[in-house]
Known about the structure:
55 residues; two-stranded antiparallel ribbon; two-stranded antiparallel sheet; 18% strand
Amino acid sequence: MAHKITDSCVACGTCxxxxxxxxxxxxxxxxxxxxxxxxxxxxxxxxxxEAIVAE
Length: 55
């Protein structure tokens, strides 16, 4: 089970540096690669807009 980034993402960049497997890609709304995500939840814990949820 991977995490996903919802439309609430403000592309602040907080999560991208926290991902231990570099599964997050930058963009207008950031994207998590479900094949790389290890479901650790670190990104969700640091997201100030609560845009990252478990799938």
